[in-house]
Amino acid sequence: MEKLKTMERNYKSNIIKIYIFSFILGIHTVRAVYYPYMTIWGGLSFFQMMLLQSYFTAMIVILEIPSGAIADYLGRKIALILSALSIALAAYTYSIIPNFYIFMLAETFWALGVSLMSGTNQAFLYASLKSYGEEENLSKIFGRIQTLNLIALTISAPIGSIIAEFISLQFTMTCLAFIYTAAFIFSFTFKEPKLEDNGYQRENYFAIIKSGFKELKNNKILRTLTLDWIPINVMIFFLFWTYQVYFEAIHIPILFFGFILIFMNMTNAIFMNVIPKLLKRSKNKKKFLTVINLINGCAYLLLGVTTFIPIGLAIILTIVAFGYTRYLIFINGINKQIESENRATILSTINMFSSLLRAILYPIIGLLVMWNVYFVFLMTGALILFLSIFTRSKSEYL
Description:
Blueprint: H1 2-26, H2 34-41, H3 46-74, H4 76-94, H5 100-117, H6 120-131, H7 138-166, H8 169-186, H9 205-218, H10 220-236, H11 239-249, H12 257-281, H13 285-303, H14 309-322, H15 328-336, H16 343-371, H17 373-389
């Protein structure tokens, strides 16, 4: 009995440890100054930056199969340890010397780390909770983890700007490597739950593609929602890579990048709660979606003709508020169309389609931004409004 109580305490401690682990990995001292880091210190063009991101996206898909095998055969604790090690190595590699091919190696490490983490952290949490009969709390705990990630990013954003301004851009990445090394060391304290069935089974990606594509082909409503969701959302998230280019174009000092990111994160967090409430109260959900599309399209068009800093920042916060949270409009509708036993497979397929579209478009956007960032905003706004015309989602679908 005493042994069982000790094991239960160990598995319960995993929850606190995963909170700490996730908070550490949520720290990102480079995020707020990524564009100047890559262009000023790294010496890359924006096109090369987007090539790296396209490569990173493709590598995540490729590495999902071998990284899943590691979690399945060597254990979830080992997968989490290797994930933290890989991400730490990525940050160290990124901070050695400014070289495109060295950066590709760093992105490979980063993609491996993300792939090892994907699904493994949920499986680890589920197994730990199931060990003492509280697996129904998984969603609540995972929500807390996402909140801790956002808090860590918000806190570290201005710190990164200060480091870049008063020490060096290079040290923003070196500092991140030290922090992720701490996560790697801390991961050894996890206790591997001894369960025959952890409740999460990884599928081979080829099986996912086949099964998911079949479901999308046969389910008209699911296919409609996916086509209305992914293309516009991919374009909205171009802002993630271009807002710092815009800051530079309108002459905002690097020191303030991180502080502006705080407001962006706060806006995102607030509207993640506001949008579902507004959707629930809406009598016509299709009109609500149309209004959201119009707001985002018009905001991008305005950003393409605005150089006045206060107005530009207000427009960016508008896109964050109504664009970054747009996916929440589709969540319930998509999940209602999926049988519970196929949920992970179908959602993985949809995410793969989104990843492939990003991988294709990133280099194109990179070239266009190098030519004129304002044109990219105008083009994005026009495309969002154009695609909105072809929206086929009905209120009862959402």
